[in-house]
Amino acid sequence: MDDSTSLQKAAKWEGLGVAWDFETDPEFQAKLDWMDDFVRAKVEPLGMLGIHPYDVKNPRRNELVRPLQEEVRAKGLWACHLGPELGGQGFGQVKLGLMNEILGGASFAPIVFGCQAPDTGNAEIIAHYGTPEQKERYLQPLLANQIVSAFSMTEPQGGSDPTNFITHAELDGNHWKINGEKWFSTNGKWADFLIVMAVTDPDAPRHERMSMFIVPVDTPGVDILRNVGVYGQENGSESYIRYTDVRVPADHLLGEQGGAFAISQTRLGGGRVHHAMRTVGNCRRLLDAMSRRAVSRKTRTGTIADYQAVQMQIADSYIELEQFKLFVLKTAWKIDKHQNYRKVRKDIAAIKALMPKVYHDIAHRCIHIHGSLGVSNEMPFVGSLIGSMVMGIADGPTEVHKVTVAKQHLRQYRDVADPMFPDYSLLDRRARAREMYDPVEEIVEAAE
Question: In a 3-state reduction of DSSP, which class is residue 150?
């Protein structure tokens, strides 16, 4: 087990009790402190220049970003989610979670540190399932941020449920021919290649019908119909793509035919922890902003921080944020402990379901405390509110994750067959207590 943080030593038996420590070891804390200063001083300002982090063909973007990436590399903090064989540190989820808390809120931070979505998940797929040729052509330049990619999965009629997808691929000689439409393929406009999920075995069981393919974006038949923006964005990068007789070589299949669903699940577990911790970082900035506004906004009798209504909003935000952060880090610790996402599936789904609510509620309070300034386009808070709604949709809607939580939780009760009046009723409990300790007379006589 990686003991890089004291959190990861939690629940270690030491003879007299359980050790539980919430401090980060000094060596790694020093790295986090450097990251925090670096992101605030050098990386956050990049988001104010009107340049997109993923526009790797933009010379000005590269002129600004490349030196910062080199600073990160020199500190040994580049792409830390990757193993040493791919140029990373192979950090566990607790370390990565603490790092992502700092990266949240700065649009350029993930790309400066080599851990930007969806490239991280796509790189993980190619690293695990790609051929040597695929790794050389696509993985290495992707890891170096020389190119970016898109995950082309969601469909207009099927949402994010793969079992409803109709985009299909047929083997035609030594090529696959792909037809269909994909919706909200993030960063498709900047991508050099797409990872496309398509039905290849329509008669197979529902979760074995689809396969994944690497599709270069300049392949004939790939048509980006439009790039949609989240509300409030001037230039969208969520691509609506039509595939018309798109032919890719047979060796562009990723993994086994019919294995797309399983592959897609392996890329999402850790990513959801990272999204959650970046949300913690976003929420911490919102709490800081509302607190500063509360103590500085004057009223006739003092500041708005003197009013209990404002104090309640700040208290609720602090309490909810701390609870959420601890839940996320506990989930990360479980992943590091078990080294198996499926064993932590319930908690991963739970933090994904909780994330948009915490984010939404804190953003809403921040807007309210700022008044008219909060809803204006001079503040970023409405963007945070929309971002919370995106988090309730991306990587599966909240309702789907709640269903997963319930199903996983109820598995431990499969063998329960309570009668009409269950054995935890007060009548049954009293009867069992009397059976254990009555008759009192006999106990007294034995004592005499």
Answer: strand
